[in-house]
Amino acid sequence: MATPLTPPPGFVESARTIGVEYEPGDVDTLGTYLSLLLSANTLVNLTAIADPAEAWTRHILDSLSLVQVLADLPEGSRVVDVGSGGGLPGVPLAICMPGLRFTLLEATAKKAAFLRHVVGELGLRTVDVAALRAEAAGRDPRHRERYDAVVARAVGAMRVLLELTVPLANWAEGEEPGRVFLIKGQKSDEELAQAKRALHELHAAHAATIPTPTGRIVVIEKLRKTPAKYPRRDGEPAKAPL
After folding, report:
1. In-domain check, residue 63
2. Which residue, 113, 116, 180, 215, could crosslink 150 as a Cys pair with Cβ 3.0–4.6 Å?
3. Helix, strand, coil proportions of the chain in percent (round to 5)?
4. Is 8 part of a structural domain of the chain?
5. What is the pLDDT of residues 92-150, one digit of tens each?
6. Does the residue 69 lie in any domain?
7. Beta bridge partners of 212
8. CA gap 66, 56 in Å, rounded
9. C-alpha triplet 68, 226, 223: angle, nearest 5°
10. Which residues lie closer than 8 Å to 127 by C-beta, 6 or more apart?
């Protein structure tokens, strides 16, 4: 087991301002995860941030900003992290929200292998890893319209990302529609303006933008069932965005 990294001064207090309350051992587990991430980064390109103190803020705190929007989900709700990469935001969320079930969706084989290693090392029993492209998952009955919440961070332009995330959000008669929560930066309004057609085509709408200490959370609500033609084939959303 890796030696946990120690958070910088003020980290725990900063997290409390966005609604994160730690159970005993959570901070150590987050530190162990960060240690695993930065160690593996020498072999697999997982993050551009090598400084541990910066990683606590830019990675862990940024990921945990989603706790405030996921806190109302019922016990056992399903959450998918699209383009999970090194496990952000899914792994920190799973550590701090053990009552939810997480799927880490990652197409790159080496990254998916790292995620499986992390899940085993940390004993995260509520986490599955799916080595799939988001386009393939969105057409797969095991994943399409099966998730109560869809999250993504640093995955690409919003008009591309919407086609990869909205089809995964739950839609079933008599059930609450799933929502999409995207961690974005200061250009989120500009990206939303460019994503007007994507929202229309995918039968979705912008519900809110929530400022956080590290960025913004863009909330997308699903209005109706996703049309069968979306998502398009692998690579098409990025090549020809809606």
Report:
1. no
2. 180
3. 40, 20, 45
4. no
5. 999 999 999 999 999 999 999 999 999 999 999 999 999 999 999 999 999 999 999 99
6. no
7. 215
8. 15
9. 55
10. 90, 91, 94, 101, 102, 103, 104, 119
Distance between CA atoms of 179 and 189, rounded to whole angstroms?
19
Structure-block tokens of residue 34: 């960060």
Take residue 156 and report the two structure tokens written for it.
Answer: 């690409």
For the whole prediction, is pTM greater than 0.90? Answer: yes
The length of the chain is: 242
pLDDT tens digits, 15-30: 988 889 889 899 999 9
What's the whole-number average pLDDT of the chain? 94
Phi and psi at 227, nearest 5°, equal -55, 145
Instruction: Tell me the residue ranges of DSSP E strands in the chain.
Output: 78-82, 101-105, 127-130, 149-153, 179-184, 204-212, 215-222
Q: What is the pLDDT of residues 31-55, one digit of tens each?
A: 999 999 998 887 777 787 878 888 9
CB 97 within 8 Å of CB 27: no
Number of domains in the chain: 1
Residue 26 CB partners (closer than 8 Å, separation 6+): 95, 96
Residues 100, 92 contacting (CB under 8 angstroms): no
Residue ranges making up the domain that contains 82: 74-239
Token pair belonging to 25: 């051992």
Question: Residue 155 corresponds to which tokens in the numbers above?
Answer: 């995955």
Supply the CATH number for residue 116's domain. Answer: 3.40.50.150
Rounded CA gap, 32 and 117, in Å? 12
Residue 132 lies in a domain: yes
Distance CA 89, CA 82 (A): 9
- Strand 215-222 relative to strand 179-184: parallel, antiparallel, unpaired? antiparallel
